[in-house]
Amino acid sequence: AANGTGMGLPAAVRDRVAAVHRGSTLPERLRLYDSWAARYEQDVAALEYRAPHLAAASLAFAFPAPRAGARLLDVACGTGLVAWELHRRGFRCLHGVDGSAGMLEKARSTGLYQELRLCVLGREPLPAPAEHYDALTVVGALGEGQVPSTVLPELLRVTKPGGFLCLTTRSNPSNLRYKAELEAALGQLERSGAWQKLLAQEVEYWERATSEEESTQGTGYISGVVYIYQKCPVPHLEEG
């Protein structure tokens, strides 16, 4: 296949990625993820999906050593791509949650997680007590038709004061409305004193585009962004 633009992607890969992003209802999307689990890692390799690497590198950069004992929650962990990257950088105490049982099964087979739980974000609370984690990642799940930006307070709830949150989203055309909503919510929490922004890095070659209209200026790739926030050590008073 011609490899110039993302259009050189195998049609089947393009269709599977598009289907998940298009999935109209939550149960339908989770079913798609379940059935995608077996081929997921091959597909994202074809996409040259760099988010797990970029997110883990950013978090490791911000995170004060030592990392081995730090408790980290990988939200929407999928098959464990982020865990591999975190593990390589010295994080050893990894917990994961995902809405897809099929994805969790693959994550379990990596042997990288101490704990894995089924949890549909935005529908139910995270299965963790308050202020439990030193760090938390949400890589690739904050997007149109996926995890709503209303989950941010729940992510903050389970993070220790002074803990770090690493979030990513895409900057391709069909996700721009969601991205604007997300950034408004991120900013609102910062103004309320809940957390502090340490990094917001736009990355040009995030992954290959699945269609010409999603591609950035005809590169065949879409761009994305990595955010790092630190939860403020002083609890802010709830209003009302």
Automatic annotation (TrEMBL):
<dbReference type="InterPro" id="IPR029063">
    <property type="entry name" value="SAM-dependent_MTases_sf"/>
</dbReference>
<feature type="domain" description="Methyltransferase">
    <location>
        <begin position="73"/>
        <end position="163"/>
    </location>
</feature>
<protein>
    <submittedName>
        <fullName>MET27 protein</fullName>
    </submittedName>
</protein>
<dbReference type="Pfam" id="PF13649">
    <property type="entry name" value="Methyltransf_25"/>
</dbReference>
<dbReference type="InterPro" id="IPR041698">
    <property type="entry name" value="Methyltransf_25"/>
</dbReference>
